[in-house]
From TrEMBL:
Source organism of this protein record: Funneliformis mosseae
Name of the molecule in the record: 2325_t:CDS:1
Origin: domain of life: Eukaryota
UniProt cross-references to Gene3D superfamilies, sorted A to Z: Photosystem II 12 kDa extrinsic protein (1.10.150.320)
Length: 729
């Protein structure tokens, strides 16, 4: 009956006729093996599993039998390898008595970004250079103390470039080491790349994680599938594999140099607390990997791990000398020194800037641009959907911590790297930045600085953590790449972010920052305009601001007449500026300030903003402009792209070329584009650029592109039926 069953199974599976004949013949001659085979096949759920089991156990790639003798081990006449009884693994020392030749590893990633030129960060260079030199010196001194011998780690958020940096570890070491003796060792090093991702994850049958690493090292040397290596060979540690190479090369193992890179160590975690529990299999494996460097062989061990929160939250402290190697943001990538992206295109330049140097996001952007024509498809929507799918869960913060992080970023609060960012959270900048999703810009050589956050992550966190009914970011349109709000001709939605021009951008940015501070909280001008050059210390009660536009030109200076009540007729409503709840944009070409905010103080004062596009040849008198826009007691701030060296009068401020990035942070790219480039050319702009204009959505952008070129605004109005006011933008 067993014979019939095995034949039926062979007939039912997708073997070739030749393979079926070979297997039938084998089981006819070795019927005593059938019950053992059937007992294993019964545990297979799918036909594909049965097929793979029989092929990997009995057949070579050419369809011939790889097991021809049952009962006692004999050598294969062609390969010299030992053959094994079913269920009995071969000890590698017996399977390969003459050893195995070393084979160079393949890269740990094969995504789009693997083709980009590698960018060696200066901080990584300096850290590796100093640490490896000291490591080798300790090795020569026969020091094997775990507090002295380094264990290298790339720990960062998903897609930040850990695998690429780990792949380049050996080449990086060769570039940065100048000592002839150490360099010679590194040139001859046996480098092993062990991946626990991309099809090489731990199999259910692998109960020992340390042995699983050794198995993948052996896999690098053999031209066999990983599952075959797992099934056939018995190993006890990585030393089994290193001994095979040493035997083949006829050298003492102690004279070799060994570099082991393990990618994706987090995939060994079975329980969320494994990294904090020192008795867990994961933690013990991590310790054992580090101990490889304690033997009498110069060994560099490096692991990569993905985290979505501070390292302390998932990895317990240890007296082991751990070196956390930095994973720095990328500059715009190149291939053979040629730019990957068309940075001359303002929309693409904006998108690249929004990625914040995040490797995986830049890959998604490249793929989206490749698959979508920027001129006739909404590639931004596709880009957004891809990011949302990949990174919605990339941040392990609760809503309160997320809000405090966003607040610190947008207000550019000066922080200590090792102290909580506010008294409402325990998170420090040092903990936050270890995920690789944020950066901490230090002020000089001190521990003080401010958090920097790419626009893309600000967008993801806002969508994920902030209540849409809360007065924080509910009005801010982060997906400004997509179709914008379409309102009535003279209606401006209160607080909504549109990119009509630099004035509206800055007014919205000011409203947004007001919403990051609690309603009624006492703040200073330096709190709200962090990053600007200031000569002002006014403190006032904060209110969450709404945006509107004046229906006529107004004088923006505080006077005795308007100090108690000041009603301004706006496009949306009539506003009393002394209620301090609105930021009002002045009507175009007004000879006074461009935007006005009432500050909640016993003695009424205004905040007046002025926006100037100045080039190197422009003449400008700060004092004259201030006197036209603000009274002496008002706070006046100028925003310009020109580099101006001005001694500021009292109650004054300036944002210019020198402090642009410090002031705008994640929004600096947008601010610069709208300040310098102004409105898009209606006859030459692509759809995405047109959609950056207020009240121009997908349909209107397509209408403009279909019926352009236009001789003038009247011609455009006649052909498209779009209101003249919108076309002028």
């Amino acid at each position: 009956m067993s014979m019939i069953n095995i034949y039926q199974i062979i007939n039912s599976l997708a073997f070739t006729n030749k393979e079926k004949t070979t297997l039938r013949s084998y089981f006819y001659k070795n019927s005593n093996e059938i019950d053992k085979v059937l007992s294993i096949i019964d545990t297979c759920q799918m036909p594909e599993e049965k097929l793979d089991f029989i092929k990997e156990t009995f057949l070579k790639s050419d369809g011939k039998l790889c097991v021809v003798v049952i009962g006692q081990q004999k050598r294969d006449a062609l390969t010299g390898f030992f053959l094994y009884d079913l269920g009995q693994k071969l000890k590698v020392a017996e399977a390969f008595p003459t050893g195995l030749p070393y084979k160079k590893p393949i890269p740990l990633l094969s995504s789009t970004g693997s083709q980009w030129d590698y960018q060696l960060d200066e901080e990584l260079r300096e850290m590796m250079q100093g640490t490896i030199k000291k490591h080798y010196q300790k090795f020569k001194e026969n020091v094997r103390d775990k507090t002295e011998i380094p264990f290298y780690l790339f720990v960062s958020g998903p897609g930040t470039g850990k695998s690429r940096n780990a792949t380049e570890l050996h080449q990086t070491a060769l570039k940065i080491i100048s000592d002839p003796e150490l360099k010679s060792r590194l040139e001859k090093a046996w480098v092993f790349h062990v991946s626990l991702e991309n099809g090489h994850s731990l199999r259910p049958v692998e109960k020992d994680s340390y042995v699983a690493i050794a198995t993948r090292m052996l896999f690098q040397l053999l031209e066999e599938r990983l599952d075959t290596v797992i099934t056939r060979y018995e190993l006890t540690s990585p030393w089994d594999v290193l001994n095979l190479v040493a035997i083949y090369e006829n050298k003492e193992l102690e004279s070799a140099t060994f570099i082991l890179v393990i990618d994706g160590m987090q995939n060994m975690i079975e329980s969320i607390d494994d990294g904090l529990y020192k008795e867990s299999n994961f933690f013990k494996t991590l310790i054992t990997i580090g101990e490889l460097s304690m033997e009498n062989i110069f060994c560099i061990t490096c692991c990569t791990m993905t985290t979505t929160g501070p390292i302390e939250f998932f990895l317990a402290e240890s007296s082991r000398y751990r070196v956390f190697l930095p994973v720095s943001p990328l500059k715009p990538p190149t291939i053979a020194s040629n730019p990957v992206f068309e940075i001359d295109n303002s929309i693409i330049r904006l998108l690249v800037g929004d990625c914040g140097g995040h490797g995986r996001v830049l890959e998604v952007l490249q793929q989206t641009l490749t698959n979508n024509n920027i001129k006739n498809s909404n590639f931004m929507e596709n880009f957004h959907n891809q990011l949302k799918y990949r990174y919605k869960r990339a941040f392990s913060y609760d809503a309160n911590d997320a809000k405090e992080i966003v607040r610190a970023v947008l207000t550019h609060t000066t922080l200590s790297n090792y102290r909580p960012i506010t008294n409402r959270t325990k998170l420090t900048p040092d903990e936050i930045t270890r995920t690789g999703m944020f950066h901490f810009e230090k002020m000089g050589n001190s521990d003080e600085g401010y958090l920097v956050m790419p626009y893309m992550w600000l967008w993801v966190m806002a969508e994920q953590f902030l209540d849409e009914k809360a007065p924080d970011l509910q009005y801010w349109r982060f997906d400004d790449y997509q179709e914008h709000l379409s309102k009535e001709d003279k209606f401006l939605a209160s607080g909504y972010c549109t990119w009509q021009n630099f004035e509206i951008f800055n007014a919205n940015f000011r409203c947004l920052k007001s919403r990051m501070i609690d309603e009624g909280e006492i703040v200073s001008i330096s709190d709200i305009h962090r990053g600007a050059k200031l000569n002002c210390d006014i403190k006032y009660k904060n209110h969450h601001l709404h945006l509107d536009i004046s229906s006529r030109q107004i004088d923006t200076r505080t006077t005795q007449t308007n100090s108690k009540r000041w009603h301004i007729e706006c496009e949306h409503n009539t506003i009393d500026i002394r209620e301090c709840t609105h930021c009002i944009i002045n009507k175009t070409s007004a000879p006074h300030g461009d935007a006005l905010i009432g500050l909640d103080l016993p003695d009424s004062k205004n905040e007046v903003q002025q926006y100037k596009l100045l080039n190197d040849h422009s003449t400008f008198n700060y004092t004259i402009e201030r006197n036209k826009a603000a009274s002496k007691k008002d706070f006046f701030i100028l925003l310009t792209t020109k580099d101006l060296d001005i001694k500021l009068p009292q109650n004054s401020g300036i944002v210019n070329k020198q402090n642009w990035n410090q002031y705008f942070g994640a929004f600096s790219g947008r601010a610069f584009i709208f300040a310098v480039e102004g409105p898009p050319d209606i006859n030459n702009a692509v759809r995405a650029q047109l959609q950056l204009v207020s009240q121009v959505g997908k349909k209107r952008a397509e209408e403009i592109m279909a019926k352009s070129p236009f001789k003038n605004i009247q011609d455009a109005k006649q052909k498209t039926n779009i209101p003249e006011k919108i076309l002028k933008r």
